[in-house]
Amino acid sequence: MMRMPNFAPITYTTWHKFPDSTKEEIWKTKFTFELFHSHENDESLNENTTQMVKSWIVSDMSTKWRQWKNFLKSKYFDEHKTVEEMVAKIDDPRVDKQQFLVIATYWLTEKAKEQSETNRTNRSKSDEPHCAGTRSFPTIIQTVTEESNGIPPSRAEMYIRTRTRKDGSVVNEKVASIVELMKKGLSESDSQDPKRCSWENDVYSQVKGPEKRGRIRCMGTISTSSSKSGPSCSQIIYHNEVQCLKAEVQGLKEALTTVISLFQKQFPNENVEVLNGVTRIVNGEVCDIMYI
Asked: Do the Cβ atoms of 240 and 57 come closer than 8 Å?
């Protein structure tokens, strides 16, 4: 969607200058708003959850839009040519040539060139670069969560994963030393502790230090306490911890169900009433009351 010129024109120099009305219009399309609200009867989708999802989607829209512009600039922009010559070489039907002409004209200005050089210099100063490529951190978090049966990764696990190449090597020596400290911290922590997903005094903060106000590292672009378009950091932390607790409870229920099943097979005539009562509680069929 963010590559469609009628939805997301590339003529704006930055995402901040992208009209809020246009962002809202994109959010309300069937690709986002209607898809999300197809589950509007789900009790878990309350107002806070809706705002959180909206904030994440708008943030992802921003990332995709910038990536698309960067791709077009790397493929078609040449400061040694005129904008007309650049436009003439565009062979991608997804690109509105008139829009490209406008943004290419801006890229040729001294202001744009200076900003581009500043950005390039700042990127080169990063001594802990990730190797996640164009995959966003929220996307990686979702993938890891699905691989871990609904348990989201901690920030330390995200740091390690996004700084480790496919061949198992780490991006540089400084990162390698940090990764070792985090691995040690993770090995000493309780993997079942729901606080592992918290951003307060987790393994990551123990190694890298506490967060600055309005910033949460290793979680991608998310709403901060100063954001006007979504929930605060504390709300997101609460939501994340709730998801961890839900996953833990589900795991305990499955384990208990297995234990009950094995017990019934071994002792089919023992404590049938109690076991049946516990089974109904685990399945949510009755309230938690004493059966003995």
From this structure: no
